[in-house]
Design a protein that fits this description.
- It is a single chain.
- The chain is an alpha+beta fold.
- The protein is elongated, with a radius of gyration of 84 Å.
- The chain binds adenosine-5'-diphosphate (ADP) and magnesium ion (MG).
- Magnesium ion binds next to helix 5 and strand 5.
């Protein structure tokens, strides 16, 4: 695809016409319109044959990239859109391959883009030529010479912020391979008046501002400068700062460039010292001083600045001071010294400044040349680049000597252009064997002659005037011109003898007008003589030569008194004429390439195309002339091969292939197309077409045919595409069908297969499950059998080995331990046994809690056993006594308070020795039975409660009461008649013996008695009754009981009495019914 985009001819995608030669119709309007149309489409380059017209776009276009360089590299000139690279490439290849020296002539007015164009050419050549460290260094030096020269030679003007104020021609030298070897730079006519004075809105040369903005404080101090622009008279103040220009950074660039180019440090230093000196010169001011002899004299106002300049440059201050005050004229060994008035002093100062600066500039160029010159002596090929100011035409007769010189140079360039173009044209015709027809065009040789003729030329006249003795003024010069040139067709002056201009008010008297090939220019004669003289007083040049500063000394060789030359130095005009002549000679030997720069507007603005301004430039650049010359014979030519290639589709015989020589093909083609014979001519290698019309007709036909062919191609392609598509679809359909069928069959088969598998799997599953069940059952049976056997074996084994089981060990250990403990317990007990006394309450402490009940039981058993032992010692007698005691205990223990006291008393029964005592002989005889109790008791009187002693006797069958004194029986009661014994619960010895009612003894009532041995008596009474009557005697213990007294029942009541009667209870009859016993 990319290949399709590659252009094969300038004619492709053309906006307007890329080559003005093809413009139809050719006139100023169509020319401008074509330029404008292209400019509006960002096509800033247009050809006139091999000439490139360049319109300054005033903005950066993306057409200078390395890719673009590659695009234009090694391509034919007319292949691609017009471009400065195409021209550069053509020139470079022609130089390298055909060994033709080249020159590239760049013209145009200030700000039209000449310098940019020259840089583009150089950068293109640098990009495409050889590579390598050495080559690169050369390239770098060549390219870096630009910033240095621009800093010193360029200035901001109203037209261009970076306007070159000098003409520059640079020869770049190459070896046979096309590698750069070095270069030579020539400079022309630096506009040195700018050093001392600048028009409004313009600046001095860049370097002054750069040095003040960019130099370090230290450096400035060394140069005795101050940073403030306003300190210097030579620096125009109104536009010291330029938008978008960074003077400080440019200063660094310049210093860097100087280093790369090869300036030594001391050289750079010297250069800046000179610059500083120039700047400071402007600050020297003069004041008038009258002398006695009446002569005007000037004096330096403030010598400080002068002193500093002298320090800086190493000039003796007095020498310089004198040079500003005197002028020495030497003629024929005669020296005449005259004083300078103030105006002359200023003139001298400015002249010195201008000369210093312009010589410095020339020195710089020489110095750069020294650095960049080719190091070898081998034959070199040369490419010259000329960047020179174009025509300058100021309004209102502001044109002066400089414009005159510049315009003269342009006339010469036009001359050489015409010459070379025609020459080339002619050569081509001859080469191609085509008949040369004379071409009508304007030849400006006549104008050149007007200016440069050695006798009658304006420059010659000026020189003559300058050298003439006597008073010479600009007016005398004009007069002379008026005389000599009056008849010249291109000279116009009010005062000339030719009356044509007598009434031309547009032409002031002090002016003359020249009809240049590019238009009329009116020159103001004022200053011509002076500028041509370019006078520097000898005293000043000698002062400079005396400077102790090698650079300044070198700049003023004529100041050396040893080489004194009385001849005047050549005038500026003649110098320029000579250098132009050399340049022309130089250019004539080379193959010219033209770049004509046009400025689209005066505002330095992008996108603005000022028709009038462009029209003006087209006129004075003579571009229309250019086209006419170019078209004079044949407008268009092309080699046969590309021509046939381009148009072969227009004829059946040549389409699509021509199998013969290209020329024959083209002949057939043109014949077939019926192009009139006079319209074209066949050269040796090229076809020549006279009118662009014919070419455009061919182009139109080609376009038409291309469309047809495109349609045809499209038709065939579409047919082919459809057919291929159809075939493909058919093939695809079969393939798809077969795939679908296969797929369906596959699916069906898969389904059957999977069904079969399902059925199969069910059956297999069922079988397997059945088998599994059986196997599982079998397994369970086996397992059960195994388990049973295991259990059985287990039981057997356990049975056999139970005794060894650990589980039984616990019990055994327990039992063993228990036994051991018991054993220990009993053995201990044995040792600690208490005494055998039944009343011994001692018993060893229980050692173990678990033996608590055993311990108690043991204690009980032991006690019982001990009691039994104790009992076994008893005799029958004792037994009885204890039985009785026991009985008493059973009856009274815890019932009667008197009981405890009785326990220790032995029951003696017969207290009274009845049988012994003779007193009771009678009584003894009356009682024949065994006496159980014989004791004295108190019988309580029933009436008053008083006690009377009685003997109480108890026998086996009776109770007897007898008188104590004589023993007379008072009452006898069979035991069977005693029903009850009552007593209190207290500590008294009262008791009542109740008798059976109705019995014989009962007639006197119950007995109320008191005894000290109540317990013994009551017990014996109870025992005897029981053994005799087999009945238990009722013993009532109560603190209140009834006693039968005869018929009355008396209540005996025991109360708590006082102790005033001692321990004896007192008995008192209260009333009939109550007998109160007070017990203490
Ligand atoms: N091809 C270009 N592309 C972009 N800008 C350009 C081009 N040529 C010139 N210019 C602009 O125009 C200005 C003036 O160009 P310059 O070459 O210095 O003019 P001349 O040398 O003819 O006086 C440049 O500083 C730049 O800004
Ligand atoms: Mg320039």
């Amino acid at each position: 695809m990319a290949k399709m985009e590659v252009k094969t001819s300038l004619l492709d995608d053309m906006i307007g016409v890329g080559d003005m030669v093809l413009l139809e119709p050719l006139n100023e309007d169509s020319f401008i319109n074509n330029l404008k149309k292209r400019f509006d489409h960002n096509e800033v380059y247009t050809y006139i044959g091999s000439v490139v017209i360049s319109i300054n776009p005033y903005r950066s276009l993306p057409i200078y990239t390395p890719e673009k360089v590659e695009e234009y590299r090694n391509r034919n000139f007319y292949e691609l859109s017009p471009h400065i690279f195409a021209l550069s490439d053509e020139a470079y290849r022609s130089l390298r391959d055909q060994d033709k020296d080249q020159c590239i002539l760049i013209t145009g007015e200030s700000g039209a883009g000449k310098t940019e164009a020259s840089k583009l050419v150089m950068s293109y050549v640098a990009a495409v030529c050889g590579k390598g460290a050495e080559v690169n260094q050369v390239k770098e030096q060549l390219l870096q010479s630009n910033p240095v020269l621009e800093a010193f030679g360029n200035a901001k003007t109203v037209r261009n912020d970076n306007s070159s104020r000098f003409g520059k021609y640079m020869d770049i030298e190459f070896d046979f391979k096309g590698d750069p070897l070095g270069g030579v730079i020539s400079n022309y006519l630096l506009e040195k008046s700018r050093v001392v004075k600048q028009p409004r809105g313009e600046r001095n040369f860049h370097i002054f501002y750069q040095i003040l903005s960019g130099a370090s404080e230290e450096f400035l101090c060394k140069l005795k400068l101050e940073r403030d622009f306003s300190r210097y008279n030579y620096l125009g103040l109104d536009s010291a700062k330029v938008n978008g220009v960074d003077d400080a950074s440019n200063f660094r660039t310049v210093r860097n460039a100087m280093q790369i180019v090869g300036f030594m440090d001391h050289e750079t230093q010297s250069v800046f010292e000179v610059v500083a000196a120039v700047l400071k010169l402007g600050n020297i001011e003069f004041k008038p001083e009258s002398r006695a002899n009446g002569l005007d004299e000037s004096k330096i106002k403030d010598k400080n600045e002068l002193k500093e300049i002298c320090e800086l440059t190493g000039i003796d201050q007095s020498v310089l001071e004198r040079a500003f005050s005197f002028r020495t004229v030497e003629a024929k060994q005669e020296k005449v010294s005259t004083t300078l008035n103030v105006a002359q002093a200023y003139y001298a100062r400015d002249a010195l400044a201008k000369n210093l600066y312009s010589r410095l500039f020339s020195w710089l160029v020489t110095r750069i040349n020294e650095s960049i010159k080719a190091q070898t002596k081998v034959r070199k090929k040369v490419m010259g680049v000329l960047d020179i100011y174009g025509f300058e035409i100021f309004e209102n007769a502001d044109n002066s000597f400089e414009q005159f010189i510049i315009n003269y140079c342009n006339e010469k360039l036009q001359q050489i252009f015409i010459e070379l173009t025609l020459k080339e044209e002619q050569e081509e015709y001859i080469r191609e064997g085509i008949e040369w027809t004379n071409i009508e065009y304007f030849n400006n040789a006549i104008i050149c002659d007007l200016i440069e003729n050695n006798q009658t030329g304006i420059l010659a006249m000026l020189d003559e005037e300058c050298l003439r003795p006597g008073t010479v003024t600009d007016d005398t010069f004009l007069e002379k011109l008026n005389q000599v040139c009056a008849t010249h067709q291109h000279f116009e002056s009010r005062m000339s003898k030719c009356s044509r201009f007598l009434n031309d008010t547009s032409l002031p008297h002090s002016c003359f007008r020249i009809q240049h090939y590019a238009g009329k220019v009116m020159y103001q004669v004022e200053g011509f003589v002076d500028k041509n003289n370019d006078l520097l007083y000898r005293d000043l040049s000698q002062a400079m030569w005396k400077a102790n500063h090698s650079l300044i000394k070198a700049l003023f060789p004529e100041g050396n008194p040893a080489k004194i030359n009385l001849k005047r130095p050549p005038t500026a005009g003649s110098q320029f004429k000579a250098s132009v002549a050399t340049l022309m000679k130089n250019l004539q030997t080379k193959n010219p390439n033209y770049i004509r720069c046009i400025k689209p507007n005066d505002k330095k603005a992008a996108h603005i195309f000022n028709d009038a301004l462009v029209c003006h430039q087209i006129r004075y650049l003579g571009l229309l002339e250019n086209v006419r010359v170019r078209r004079a014979g044949y407008a268009f030519r092309q080699a046969y091969e590309p021509c046939l290639e381009r148009y072969k589709m227009l004829c059946k015989q040549t389409w699509p292939h021509w199998r013969g020589p290209a020329r024959a093909g083209v002949e057939v083609l043109f014949d077939e197309l019926g192009i009139p014979e006079e319209e074209f001519s066949f050269g040796r290698s090229k076809i020549f077409i006279r009118n662009p019309r014919t070419l455009f007709k061919l182009e139109d036909l080609r376009k038409q045919r291309l469309e047809d062919l495109a349609t045809l191609i499209e038709k065939i392609y579409r047919g082919w595409k459809c057919r291929t598509r159809f075939l493909l679809m058919k093939k695809s359909q079969i393939v798809i069908a077969s795939w679908v069928r296969r797929h369906a069959q596959q699916k069906r088969y898969q389904k059957i297969k999977s069904s079969a598998i399902v059925v199969q799997s069910y059956i297999r599953g069922w079988k397997a499950r059945k088998l599994l069940r059986e196997l599982k059952h079998l397994k369970r049976c086996n397992e059960a059998a195994t388990i049973i056997a295991a259990y059985w074996h287990g039981t057997q084994v356990r049975r056999e080995y139970r005794k060894y089981f650990r589980a039984n060990a616990g019990r055994k250990i327990y039992e063993f331990t228990l036994q051991r403990l018991m054993q220990k317990y009993f053995l201990e007990m044995k040792k600690k046994m208490p005494s055998l006394s039944p009343i011994d309450k001692n018993w060893p402490a229980r050692p173990y809690l678990f033996l608590d009940s055993t311990h108690k039981e043991l204690k009980r058993i032991f006690h019982l056993w001990r009691c039994k032992k104790y009992r076994d010692q008893f005799t029958d007698q004792q037994k009885l006594i204890y039985e009785e005691k026991l009985e008493a205990s059973e009856l009274f223990k815890d019932k009667k308070a008197l009981y405890p006291a009785s326990v220790g008393q032995p029951f003696q029964g017969a207290y009274l020795e009845i049988s012994e005592n003779p007193k009771y002989k009678k009584l003894k005889d009356a009682v024949d039975e065994k006496i159980i109790i014989a004791e004295v008791v108190n019988k309580i009187n029933r009436a008053n409660g008083k006690a009377t002693s009685r003997i109480f006797l108890l026998t086996k069958n009776n109770v007897l009461l007898a008188d104590q004194k004589n023993g007379t029986i008072k009452s006898e009661v069979p035991l069977g008649d005693v029903t009850k014994v009552s007593m209190s619960s207290q500590n008294d010895g009262f008791f009542a013996v109740h008798l059976k009612e109705g019995s014989e003894a009962a007639t006197k009532g119950d007995f109320l008695l008191s005894s000290d041995h109540l317990i013994e008596m009551a017990t014996k009474l109870y025992r005897t009754t029981l053994s005799q009557t087999k009945q238990k005697l009722n013993i009532e213990i109560s603190d209140e009981f009834l006693v039968q007294f005869k018929q009355d029942k008396v209540c005996v009541k025991f109360i708590q009495g006082s102790q005033k009667n001692g321990n004896i209870p007192t008995c008192k009859r209260k009333n009939n019914r109550l007998l109160e016993v007070a017990v203490p």
